[in-house]
Design a protein that fits this description.
The chain is α/β, with parallel strands linked by helices. The chain has helices at 12-36, 49-65, 70-75, 78-119, 130-133, 171-176, 209-212, 222-230, 244-257, 302-305, 307-314, 316-321, 361-368, 371-376, 380-397, 409-413, 428-439, 447-455, 470-486, and strands at residues 41-42, 45-46, 137-138, 147-148, 152-158, 181-187, 203-206, 234-236, 266-272, 336-339, 342-351, 355-358, 400-406, 443-446. The strands form five sheets. A five-stranded parallel sheet has the order 8-7-9-13-14, with helices on both faces. Strands 10-11-12 form a three-stranded antiparallel sheet.
């Protein structure tokens, strides 16, 4: 008779319990670490790939030691360890499947939206698209900023920046959303939207498209209106699609190259809630000479190094915890991406009070993020450093800085629209910028607070664009003028 000891299936949980326990917890720990710890900042330490590997190693070492610990062995029998390990493996697998399904769903939605742009290209549309009017840029140095090519007149009639031709096939959009408007402005000799010479101004406005006046006609931007009300020109230093670091680099460049004629008494620095934390904080342009490539670039190892970033970006659990995901049957994420049978390139929302309007997904996401997203964002220390450099510059050049915080339309109006994602409990980025500005000794104009009363009864942003409309620009100029007289 064969005396070889065999293990029956009923005995497998007892024999394999500790191994499955370690394997399951280790897999779940790896997933959660990539989803919640990778690319976060703890204190002044940013957890990159090396830090993540260290955390994984420490965590897995602790997990591997649990079954061998005398107390754990007495409290948790092998069969229970087996069940816990299988449960962890199952949970991780379910999360990965959910991540995959959500990414596929969003990709399908984005493909449909993009198809509406690709099918009816601009070459077949008689209407000028805003991007076709946008003035060309150039880089005078390798520092991270650009100017507009000078001495150019921009003139045309256009809709909002996300307009596509297929929108005209929707009666709802034509009658209730699209706002065709005339645009005419001049890019002056210094490569900015300003005809007045630098030497004539003592107050300068620095920022992105909300300063530039991306969608608004000449003479109707808040900088133009503020200058008229104060009886002095406000020099417009706005350049669209920029963040605090490129704005600082631009301002330093102008001070250096126009030292004899540029006399700054006050700088109005506008910070936009929607994307100024996400924008580039590089000191050099991306196409400028940079550090050496990663030693793993082009090797078999490189694809595996991207796994933590992919898990972090697609994690359903992470997005649920951070309030960035709305599970509903009415649309890919929120709002609707189709109306009157026409696919839309961005979500359309409806309000009983304000009717239909578009919202930019990035602005919506920014308005839903929790406090730890702002505090742990890798750009947050770089934002601090940028403000510190502006303080040093203002002290050396003897000018005052007023930080103007511009809220997104999502923050100001999201609560009034149906099926809108839940906004964060507080405007954490707005509050952080206000506090940081005060620490630097800058005065603050918080437009979120100041615009709230008017936003209860009227739209201050275009319906088809996330920038202020003419009424919004008018009100912003009045509010800033009132605040400046108090300082």
């Amino acid at each position: 008779m064969d005396q070889t000891t065999s293990v029956t299936p009923s005995r497998l949980p007892e024999r394999l319990g500790p191994r499955v326990f370690v394997m399951g917890l280790a897999i779940l720990w790896a997933y959660l670490s990539a989803a919640f710890l990778f690319e976060t900042t703890v204190g002044s330490i940013r957890i990159g790939m090396v830090g993540l590997v260290g955390l994984l190693g420490v965590g897995m070492g602790v997990i591997a030691a649990v079954p061998r610990a005398p107390l754990a062995a007495r409290v948790i029998p092998p069969t229970t360890m087996f069940a816990i390990g299988l449960a962890c493996i199952g949970v991780t697998a379910a999360l990965l499947v959910a991540d995959f399904a959500l990414e596929v769903r969003d990709n399908v939605a984005n493909s449909r939206a993009q198809e509406s742009i690709n099918v009816d290209g601009r070459t077949t549309d008689p209407t000028i698209w805003h991007g076709e009017l946008y003035p060309r840029q150039y880089a005078p140095t390798n520092r991270n900023f650009r100017l507009y090519k000078p001495n150019v007149r921009v003139t045309g009639e256009t809709y909002g920046e996300r307009y596509v031709s297929s929108m005209l096939k929707s009666p709802t959009l034509v009658e209730q959303v699209l706002e065709k408007r005339s645009l005419s402005y001049f890019i002056g000799p210094d490569g900015l939207r300003e005809l007045e010479p630098l030497s004539e101004s003592r107050i300068f406005a620095l920022g992105d498209s909300f300063v530039f006046g991306f969608a608004t006609d000449e003479g109707k931007t808040w900088t133009d209106l503020l200058g008229k009300s104060m009886g002095m020109p406000i020099y417009n230093l706005g350049v669209s699609a920029t963040g605090p670091r490129p704005q600082l680099e631009l301002f330093k460049y102008l001070l250096e190259t126009h030292a004899p004629t540029m006399h700054v008494q006050r700088l109005l620095w506008m910070i936009f809630e929607g994307n100024d934390l996400e924008n580039s904080y590089d000191r050099l342009l991306s196409d400028a000479p940079s550090a050496a490539a990663s030693p793993f670039e082009g090797t078999l190892v490189e694809p595996f190094l991207s796994i933590p970033e992919r898990v972090r970006g697609s994690s359903v659990l992470r997005r649920l915890v951070r309030g960035q995901l709305v599970l509903s049957s009415g649309g890919p994420r929120y709002g609707q991406y189709e109306i009157d049978g026409q696919a839309l390139p961005l979500p359309l929302f409806h309000s009983k009070q304000f009717g239909y309007r578009f919202f930019v997904p990035a602005d919506v996401d920014a308005a839903t993020r929790p406090k730890d997203y702002v505090l742990n964002h890798p750009n947050r220390p770089l934002l601090d450093q940028t403000f510190q450099e502006m303080r040093t510059l203002s002290q050396n050049a003897h000018f005052d800085v007023t930080v103007i915080i511009a809220p997104s339309d999502a923050r100001l109006y999201g609560h009034a629209f149906e099926r809108f994602p839940t906004l964060s409990a507080k405007p954490y980025f707005v509050d952080y910028v206000a506090e940081l500005s005060q620490q630097m000794g800058f005065s603050v104009v918080n437009l979120l607070d100041l615009l709230q009363p008017a936003a209860q009864t009227e739209l201050l942003y275009y319906r088809d664009d996330h920038h202020w409309n003419e009424r919004g620009n008018e009100l912003v100029s009045q509010l800033i003028a009132q605040e400046l007289t108090r300082h």
